[in-house]
Amino acid sequence: MASNNLYLLGALGTAGAVGGGIYLASPNPKPVTTIRDKYTPLQAGDSTNWDKVLAKYNEVKNTPTKRFTTSTETISLENLKRDCESSLDKETSDDLYSKVKLWCTTPRSIRERLGDLNITLLKTDGEDDDTGDKSKWAKLEGKYRDGGNSDIKNFKVDASSTTDTWKKLRDECKKHLDKDRWDDEYEYYLGKVSEWCSDKG
């Protein structure tokens, strides 16, 4: 399989500056451009998100396959930044690509990530078309039922549609919008929310 290019394309600001150095040094780093996705690298001064990422990183120290190193020790922020720098300079395997997304880019909930991708989520409150996208939810409910009523694990809509049955799908979607990217089911529900909770057409 082709590698995923994680270079910061176009980010060179001065002669001789390369890759990860720019990633941490630039006050406004450009999004990582990859074959499949666009993510925004953590900025050097974004202490709030760096601290959040570091805490999550050290929470999984006993699962080294999730980290850049096989060490089970608690690491410092400096070391995590160094690992991100070196990884962003590479064309990576899928495994390293996943780690870079998880530990070196700005954390985004499912709601935020879909917004980044210009996917418009349906309203999750309200009772009619104006306030709650009722007809759009009802259309998705019918599509979900007709497609086998099982595309989202452990979730089914009612066997037949009535006045308020569309709310069941809406409420299921609402449960997952704020999952953070460290949730084990983040990628799964990112896809499901995109398909069943958005205004794609």
Automatic annotation (TrEMBL):
Transmembrane found in the keyword field: yes
Top-level taxonomic group: Bacteria
UniProt keyword terms in alphabetical order: Membrane, Transmembrane, Transmembrane helix
Membrane spanning residue stretches: 6-26
Entry keyword annotation includes Transmembrane helix: yes
Stated name of the protein: Uncharacterized protein
Organism (species): Mycoplasma haemofelis (strain Langford 1)
